[in-house]
Amino acid sequence: MSHSVCKTIVVIALSAMTIAPIAGGSILLSAEAAFAKGGKDNGNGNGGDNGKGNDRGGNSDRGNGNDRSSASGADGLTPGQARKAARQQIIETAGVRNWGAIASELGELNKANANVNARLNSSDPVHQALAAYELSGGTTLAGVREVNEARESYATYREELLGTEVEDPPGSGTMVEITPDNLDQYAESFEDFADLSEDLAEAYAALATLSSMRDKPLTRGALDALNGMLGLEDPVSQ
Predict the structure, then answer these.
(1) pLDDT band for position 220 (50/70/90)?
(2) What domain of life does the UniProt record list for this protein's source (predicted)?
(3) Model's pTM, two decimal places?
(4) Which of 236, 212, 11 is nearest to 108 (CA)?
(5) Among candidate residues 227, 237, 236, the one with its CA nearest the CA of residue 89
(6) Three-class SS of residue 177?
């Protein structure tokens, strides 16, 4: 899939993205409503953790190598050891008992384990959406929170405009009351109001596309795992 196609997916997502309010320092992503221009970290992982303490979550890291590698990195860990350490950190941050809970929650998004070329050249919508998110550079909980806060502020700003008056045209002395019918005409656009970075807006829109393919929101643990599977070492956070 070409980068231009990924950009098209992102543009479509940007027009339909939404993020549910954050509660308790966690995230909820969905794509049910929209601004025209525009995972709840609950400690149980929403992922069917069976409590067996194993690491047999669906679609494990078969596409990213395995623990039998003997090569050591700069930190003295083999790739397999480094991956296990990263997994353990994600598990602890998410507050779940094992990787299976996160893998179960990810569902089809475990396709992120596939070879990058398979994603970029696939006609599978999930692979295409994953490729678009990968090319965006990804985002973190902090980035999602920033978008969420901007959207809440924008909603408040629009509500406060209702019932006020503006002089239109300027200098004419004619005052026009702002109503739901003309609000879009006089309100600042979300992009101008929020002044989000282009990178963050693109990454969030790509993430919203992935979220729209799911029945349940992504939790923080799943987002961290997704970024790790895609090798996104420095996702956009603000």
Answers:
(1) confident
(2) Bacteria
(3) 0.67
(4) 212
(5) 227
(6) strand
